[in-house]
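cron nightly-structures :: item 1 of 1
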Amino acid sequence: MEYALQLIEFLVGLDRHIKEIIELYGAWIYLIMFLVLFCETGLVIAPFLPGDSLLFILGAFSASGLINVYIIGVILMVAAVLGNTVNYHIGRYLGPLMFENNKVRFLNKEHLNKTKDFYRRHGAITIVVARFIPIIRTFAPFVAGIGKMHYTTFYVYNIIGSCLWVGSLLFIGFYFGNIPFVQKNLTLIILSVLVLSVFPILFAYFSSKWKR
């Protein structure tokens, strides 16, 4: 149990260990980051994995020459597209069974309901917008599958959202990564990115409370 908790703690804080992983595994960093981002977007049980902060920090390390920004960019875009695609099919074929009579206890039904509400308000563009909102981005393709969104529509928005999300955060990290202040305060920057990522969720939560 203790080892499992340590593993979860490591995965949640993975963005703070990128330099160690690069030093230990070298070029394997590309495959490792592919798997992390694929799981974060493709497995509805893994919304706790880092996304926004991971992309930013990878961009920052790319600026220092430890990673090739173009290679990691293409790899992560592919991971994001494939992750969403798998998540969509899981929702389409297994989603109704997974939530029937609350049989799967480790899936948070509140997150599912919030994502459904998000779809009602924003439509198919949710696939793009949700990329920038933690937790919602993991559940969005799953809910799209449950709702049997037309696959072509989903696929187009999936590619657009994946490219915008990975590209924007990766290159923001890349271009700001050479700034001395950023290099000296990397932990603070990561925490700031996390706060900004969670802000839309907090805003929606308190807005709904205020309306009630």
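cron nightly-structures :: done
Residues 11 and 49 are 6 Å apart (CA to CA).
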